[in-house]
Amino acid sequence: MLILLVEVLCVIVLVMIFSTLLLDERRNRERDLSLIKLKGYWDGDERRTTDRLNVTMEVRYHLNGKSSVSRSMDISTKGIRILLDERIDKGTPIAVTMRIPGKNHLIQASGSIVWSSESKNESNDPNKRFFNTGIKFYSFRDSGERNLFNFIREMEKIVPKNG
């Protein structure tokens, strides 16, 4: 009888150990899978949630009380990349105004600088520096977001996407 009781206790202990190992393995797999997804997102070339359209248009930007003109490199409903002759710090608030080519729609948006990197191939003058600058839109005036969305949708039929 004592031997039977010891055998039952051993089986119960083994089942508990096996269950614990299975649960730990499942948790580790789930954690690893989420880390892989996160790493692939953050380490990849693209972190955008929407495609950008390669469109060059004049963009007026308003920064620190002054206004200047630049040109877009690409655009989406979430942001725009423009070419500047100065590096702007990440997080700096900025306002942009664009006129949709071929339309009378003026788009005014507020956003902030999300990145800036030197562009090596934008100037023939070695003393002149240009910076590709990414801007994330936070808000639009009037129907600007809808007009931008419609413009991008129309242009996607003509211009290749970037991203």
How would you describe this protein?
There is one protein chain. The protein has about 160 residues and is α+β, with helices and mostly antiparallel strands. It has two domains: about 45 residues; about 110 residues, predicted glycosyltransferase like domains (Thrombin, subunit H, Beta Barrel), CATH 2.40.10. Helices cover about 35% and strands about 35% of the residues. A six-stranded antiparallel beta barrel has the order 2-3-4-7-6-5. The N and C termini lie far apart (about 70 Å).
What would a concise description of this structure say?
The protein is of the alpha+beta class and 163 residues long.
Describe how the helices and strands are arranged.
Layout: H1 2-43, E1 52-53, E2 58-63, E3 66-75, E4 79-84, E5 93-99, E6 106-119, E7 130-140, H2 144-155, E8 161-162
Antiparallel strand pairs: 1-8, 2-3, 2-5, 3-4, 4-7, 5-6, 6-7
